[in-house]
Design goal:
By secondary structure, the chain is of the alpha/beta class. The chain is built from 14 helices and 14 strands. The strands form three sheets. A seven-stranded mixed β-sheet has the order 2-10-9-8-5-3-4, with helices on both faces. It has a five-stranded mixed β-sheet with strand order 1-13-14-12-11, covered by helices on one side. A two-stranded antiparallel ribbon has the order 6-7. β3 (about 80-85), α4 and β4 (about 105-110) form a beta-alpha-beta unit. The longest helix is centred in the C-terminal third of the chain and has 23 residues, at about 265-290. The radius of gyration is 21 Å and the shape is globular. About 50% of the residues are buried. The protein binds pyridoxal-5'-phosphate. The site of pyridoxal-5'-phosphate has 14 residues, from α3 and β6.
């Protein structure tokens, strides 16, 4: 009834697309063979590296995050070789499942849906691998299903402490441009990301970053499908580098503008904005939770992502609240991905193009929904969020 007006999508990807990005994409098809599109494409590479804080290479693919998952795996392992999968929610298991389907052997350590990676357990597993069978360690920086943020720098330290030579591969699809990530300083060999979350562009373009160690691993891979091979994409002729076929013309312009916005704001400022807004969200949820069932999935704030928050509320109130917000307030909340019962969970995306008033509006819509549906909740959530934002500025 009160849903008409500009709809707000508060799911953890795709994220809100800035008007500037939409305007940059609103144009006639450009020439794909020569001219401006090539210059703009070339200009993306150094800025993509800045956002990931790396001097390594980056290959761009047409495809979503799943494409980057497959591309990354295809370049570093031969069939039958082993990868270690560190599960902290739906996404690393998804990546591991893809590795298995590609014919790799997977060794899975499952840390459950409410914890981050236990680095001591990983170190012990690597020490046990005395023959060096594990070729790569797969970890998700921010698991979008649980909203846990894993300590990727600590993972490198644990791998080094075990004296293990496996590659460290990180999924930063949810975190890039939201939660601080420093590819080179943290010793990450391969990183995958995509454009539709922190990078504020419609889904359809993804990235595989890799360093010298990863290149050495690539040299030992016997068969890499031509399409996924990162070699010609990172440094080859323009045809290959620019997408091995028709370029995603409009995405290129959109991404160019999105990267400009991020770099003009400054990476530190972008990370700080996400941190402050996440804190406002958590403060509100904690207030609701003082007298009701709502809980943030990850208890320890230092282990939470600043890009997404996964919450538990009890079945079926997660579904009821999402439905109310969608139909009565014009606000779409994220589903409880990979959890049982799914109706007991939901997620909030606060990644990319978000500011204080957007966050207050999301929390306001949810607050009204809790009241309309008679879902028990503590008072003062909006007041607490408002104070949190005031204190941040
Ligand atoms: C969104 C997401 C993916 C999947 O990306 P798609 O573009 O949907 O294929 C993988 N990993 C993480 C951590 C994500 O957040």
């Amino acid at each position: 009834m009160l849903a008409n007006g500009r709809h707000y999508l508060a799911i953890p990807g795709p994220s809100v697309i800035p008007d500037e990005v939409l305007r940059a994409m609103h144009r006639a098809s450009p020439n794909i063979y020569t001219g401006e599109l090539h210059l703009v494409t070339r200009s993306l590479l150094p800025d993509l590296k800045k956002v990931a804080m790396t001097s390594g290479e980056v290959a761009i693919y047409i495809g979503n995050g799943h494409a980057a998952w497959e591309a990354a795996l295809a370049n570093v392992c031969n069939r039958g070789e082993r990868v270690l999968v560190l599960g902290t929610g739906r996404f690393c298991h998804g990546w591991g499942g893809m590795a298995e389907a590609l014919g790799f052997e997977t060794q899975v350590i499952d840390f459950g849906n409410t914890s981050d990676i236990d680095l001591n357990v990983v170190e012990a597993a690597l020490r046990e691998d005395t023959q060096g069978k594990i070729k790569a360690v797969l970890a998700v920086h921010v698991d979008t299903s649980t909203s846990v943020r894993n300590d990727i720098a600590g993972l490198r330290t644990a791998m080094d402490a075990a004296g293990h030579g496996a590659l460290l591969m990180a999924d930063c699809i949810a975190s890039l441009g939201c939660d601080r990530f420093e590819m080179d300083a943290w010793g990450v060999d391969v990183m995958v990301s995509a454009c539709q979350k922190g990078l504020m562009t419609p889904p359809g373009v993804s990235f595989v970053y890799f360093n010298e160690r990863a290149k050495a691993a690539r040299a030992n891979v016997k068969i890499v499908s031509q399409y996924w091979d990162w070699k010609p994409r990172a440094a080859g002729e323009e045809y290959w580098q620019f997408f091995a076929g028709t370029a995603p013309t409009h995405h290129i312009y959109g991404l160019r503008t999105a990267l400009d916005m991020i770099l003009n704001e400054g990476l530190d400022a972008v990370f700080a904005r996400h941190a402050h807004l996440a804190r406002a969200v958590w403060t509100a949820i904690d207030a609701w939770g003082t007298d009701g069932p709502m809980r943030i999935n990850i208890t320890d704030p230092t282990k939470r992502s600043h890009a997404v928050t996964s919450l538990e509320i009890g079945d079926p109130d997660g579904d009821r609240l999402r439905d109310w917000c969608e139909t009565q307030a014009g606000l779409t909340l994220g589903i409880g991905l990979g959890r049982t019962p799914p109706g007991g969970f939901f997620r909030l995306g606060h990644m990319g193009h978000v500011n204080a008033q957007m966050i207050m509006a999301v929390l306001g819509g949810m607050d009204a929904g809790l009241k309309a549906l008679d879902i028990p909740h503590g008072a003062g959530a909006l007041e607490a969020a408002s104070q949190s934002i005031a204190a941040a500025v």
